[in-house]
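Researcher: Let's do a round of design. I'm pasting the structure tokens now; please hold your answer until I've finished.
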């Protein structure tokens, strides 16, 4: 047996053995020198097969001996044996000190490769004696290339995956080992991604409208394959549209039905239906009313059966009552015969809080200033000074606003003898314009007056826009690199400027305005305006990351029934379509929530949301509210019922106008789902106490045509009802307001109020704090602390082998469409979090975000770990009860 090569591990000596047969003597020679005899250990034995003597010798070699040797070769030893046959030498056995360096000469590097691509990971182990062996690990599990033909680890310590699979994504580590130690390289993350591919186009959809101008669509999805692990999204549009059109049937009236029985109010009614043919699919509705009423006693109606009971009750005073009645009739007839057009001015400031009551006497025949005799009672327009103004008419009293009063007259100046002075002058022109005098009217009520049009049988309805001079509401704030939030109170409109959207060391005065006048957007076909026109500026600003604009809308969101589009006004004033909310685009992003639309954009401008109903089942949400105030006649009380688009902007305008008229909100507003089925709305007053109140004839039920409601375009509409008390002692009013759409939904408003201001309970709709929060800048404007936001972005922007990236974050936050928009951003997670901030503007917990992160399984991102959050961050309690 010859001595074998050996390695000294640490300070442990090694033993070299040599055996010879037959042999007389054996000695070791190391590095050319004989080893001293005393350093040998000898063992003798007899070979059982041959019977010859076997001699074995051993020596120790220490680390010190090897280190002290400085020859050109490794430390070596050999044994020399003597026998009767002569001398024999063994092979040289080298002795070396074993070691393994700590640092790899080349660590493997992470890679991102497409599916089916080749992966090559290089590894050069540390220097060592003996040479280190290399083993590969994936996610801490050893790789066996013998069991997977797709993997080769034999080529110069490198790992080769011939055809990458999704399962090959992971963290790879190279481990080098010899008899001394084991060394692990740094981990290399391998991401196998899948680039998205378009599916085949689906069939063209049916035309969006049964008649008129519509569109056909077909779509495809980015699912062939679906992009994974950061793969690129499909290039191109996911939807194609072509126009389609057909003629819409216009409605025609059926014959009038039979007259109803004569009512206690001495009137009967008859109805007709718009059914030959019925209006369908946006066709022109029938002109005129579906119901008409007329007196059924040829003017000989006895006003109230209660007179008989009154005669019986006051039989003892009959003579006195008759005498008083004759006297009143005589005085009235005398005044009518002697009057010219003029003004009786009554200082009613004690009754109306400083606002004036005008009694306009009847005009003589032939007077050019006579108001149109076709005017019907109770037409109201919603802008007034703040108190009631009324005409005294021989047939009825008519409650009107300053716009209704002044518009039909030419250059009239009214002289009032109490708190403000106006002189009266007349010209020959048929209409006039009122001119307000500075300091005359209440603060905030200096406005331009609109024009009062002649009324036919239909209108108890008027648009507010024609008399509103407040064409826009506007807020502004100064924002810099830290971003912030700009909110227009009580409108639902807000603007979020993310952190770092504005360049460092720059600051801008940013404004936000809402158009309250007539919309400048010209609608096409069956389009309707779903929210206010909103302008944000300055227009020449650009951002490094998208800003988020929130606009309220009144549509009941359904992709089957609505095609919602975002439009933008160009600098030339022309409106252009930016995108449809179901489009896949990288220039804008629109997210429709139930009551608001959140828009991500890179530049400012004027924007509006329009909707095109695709079916008759498309629904607009209307807010129904009832207001009341005392009339100029101390016994009369006015009810105004509004049917307005369910946006805070529209309701805020109504509140403002009612505040100027002295109106009070009598009941919490309710929502009515108004279908696009071309049927009108009927508004009626029910259950009036019969012996306390009465309603003026022919006004108990009013009907609003479908087109006036459906195409109101954010302009409030209302109906007015005039109630009269039998006695001033009546101070409580109880009734029901029924609002129903023919062949649609219905709701009831229960009115229970005192007509005396000091006894009436005030209903507050907007919270007071809504008016305080206009512009917040810096960290306090955001719910997610900046340090936490950075951690979330760093976590989800990095591709992960298990697919837990920003796309999963978007999915958990209910952002499921147009993901190609986020894929184009440098930090998709940051833009997703900005959108989350825009959708959750009000104070509250961050529980939804915490739950989303927990569902994803990234427990390390729970914000309970942020005890070291910078002091500038908001003071959140990072628990599931109070947020992240």
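Researcher: That's everything. Go ahead.
Model: Designed sequence:
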């Amino acid at each position: 047996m010859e001595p074998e090569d050996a390695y000294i591990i640490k300070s442990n000596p090694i033993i070299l053995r040599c055996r010879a047969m037959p042999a007389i003597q054996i000695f070791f020679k190391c590095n050319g020198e004989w080893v001293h005899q005393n350093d040998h250990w000898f063992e003798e034995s007899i070979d059982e097969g041959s019977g010859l003597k076997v001699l074995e010798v051993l020596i120790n070699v220490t680390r010190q001996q090897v280190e002290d040797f400085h020859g050109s070769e490794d430390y070596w030893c050999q044994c020399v044996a003597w026998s009767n046959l002569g001398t024999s030498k063994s092979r040289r056995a080298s002795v070396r000190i074993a070691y393994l360096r700590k640092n790899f000469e080349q660590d493997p590097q992470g890679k991102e490769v497409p599916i089916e691509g080749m992966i090559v990971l290089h590894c050069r182990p540390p220097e060592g004696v003996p040479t280190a062996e290399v083993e590969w690990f994936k996610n801490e599990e050893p790789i066996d290339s013998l069991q997977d033909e797709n993997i080769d680890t034999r080529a110069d310590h490198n790992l080769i995956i011939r055809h990458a699979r999704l399962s090959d994504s992971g963290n790879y580590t190279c481990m080098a080992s010899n008899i001394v130690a084991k060394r692990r390289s740094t981990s290399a993350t391998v991401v196998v991604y899948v680039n998205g591919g378009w599916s085949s186009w689906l069939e063209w959809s049916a035309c969006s409208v049964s008649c008129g101008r519509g569109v056909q669509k077909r779509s495809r999805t980015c699912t062939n394959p679906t992009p994974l692990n950061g793969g690129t999204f499909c290039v191109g549009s996911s939807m194609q549209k072509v126009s389609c059109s057909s003629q819409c049937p216009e409605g025609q009236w059926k014959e009038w039905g039979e007259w109803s029985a004569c009512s206690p109010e001495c009137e009967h009614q008859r109805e007709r239906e718009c059914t030959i043919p019925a209006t369908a699919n946006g066709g022109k509705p029938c002109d005129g009313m579906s119901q008409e009423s007329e007196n059924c006693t040829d003017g000989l109606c006895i006003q109230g059966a209660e007179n008989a009971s009154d005669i019986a009750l006051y039989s003892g005073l009959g003579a006195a009552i008759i005498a008083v009645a004759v006297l009143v009739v005589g005085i009235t007839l005398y005044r009518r015969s002697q009057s010219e057009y003029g003004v009786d001015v009554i200082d009613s400031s004690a009754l109306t809080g400083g606002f004036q009551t005008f009694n306009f006497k009847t005009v003589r025949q032939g007077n050019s200033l006579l108001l149109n005799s076709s005017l019907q009672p109770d037409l109201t327009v919603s802008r007034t000074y703040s108190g009631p103004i009324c005409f005294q008419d021989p047939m009825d009293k008519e409650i009107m606003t300053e716009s209704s009063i002044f518009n039909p007259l030419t250059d009239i100046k009214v002289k009032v003898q109490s708190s403000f002075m106006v002189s009266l002058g007349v010209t020959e022109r048929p209409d006039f314009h009122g001119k307000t005098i500075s300091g005359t009217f209440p603060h905030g009520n200096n406005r331009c007056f609109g024009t009062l049009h002649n009324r036919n049988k239909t209108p108890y309805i008027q648009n507010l826009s024609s008399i509103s001079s407040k064409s826009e509401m506007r807020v502004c704030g100064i924002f810099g690199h830290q971003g912030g939030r700009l909110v227009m109170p009580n409108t639902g409109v807000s603007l979020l400027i993310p952190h770092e959207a504005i360049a460092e060391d720059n600051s801008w005065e940013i404004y936000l305005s809402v158009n309250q006048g007539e919309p400048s957007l010209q609608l096409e076909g069956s389009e309707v305006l779903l929210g206010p026109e909103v302008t944000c500026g300055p227009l020449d600003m650009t951002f490094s990351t998208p800003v988020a604009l929130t606009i309220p809308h009144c549509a009941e969101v359904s992709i089957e029934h609505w095609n919602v589009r975002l439009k933008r006004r160009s600098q030339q004033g022309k409106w252009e379509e930016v995108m449809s909310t179901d489009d896949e685009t990288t220039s804008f992003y629109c997210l429709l929530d139930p009551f608001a639309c959140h828009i991500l954009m890179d530049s400012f401008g004027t924007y509006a949301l329009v909707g095109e109903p695709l079916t008759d089942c498309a629904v607009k949400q209307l807010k129904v509210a009832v207001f009341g105030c005392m009339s100029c006649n101390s016994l009369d009380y006015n009810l105004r019922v509004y049917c307005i688009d369910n946006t805070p902007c529209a309701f805020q305008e109504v509140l403002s106008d009612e505040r100027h008229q002295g109106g009070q909100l009598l009941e919490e507003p309710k929502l009515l789902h108004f279908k696009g089925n071309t049927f009108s709305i009927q508004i009626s007053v029910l259950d009036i106490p019969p012996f306390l109140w009465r309603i003026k004839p022919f006004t108990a039920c009013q009907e609003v045509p479908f087109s006036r409601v459906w195409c109101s375009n954010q302009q409030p509409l209302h109906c007015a009802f005039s109630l009269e008390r039998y006695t001033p002692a009546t101070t409580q009013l109880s009734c029901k307001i029924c609002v129903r759409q023919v062949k649609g939904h219905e709701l009831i408003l229960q009115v229970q109020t005192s007509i005396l201001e000091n006894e009436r309970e005030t209903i507050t709709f907007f919270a007071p704090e809504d008016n305080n929060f206009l512009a917040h800048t810096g960290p306090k404007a955001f719910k997610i602390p900046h340090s936490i936001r950075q951690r979330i972005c760093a976590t989800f922007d990095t591709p992960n082998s298990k697919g837990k990236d920003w796309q999963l974050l978007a999915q958990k936050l209910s952002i499921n469409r147009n993901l190609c928009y986020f894929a184009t951003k440098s930090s998709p997670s940051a833009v997703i979090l900005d959108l989350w901030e825009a959708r959750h503007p009000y104070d509250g917990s961050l529980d939804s975000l915490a739950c989303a992160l927990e569902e994803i399984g990234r427990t390390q991102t729970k914000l309970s770990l942020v005890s070291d959050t910078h002091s500038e961050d908001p003071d959140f309690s990072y628990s599931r009860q109070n947020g992240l």
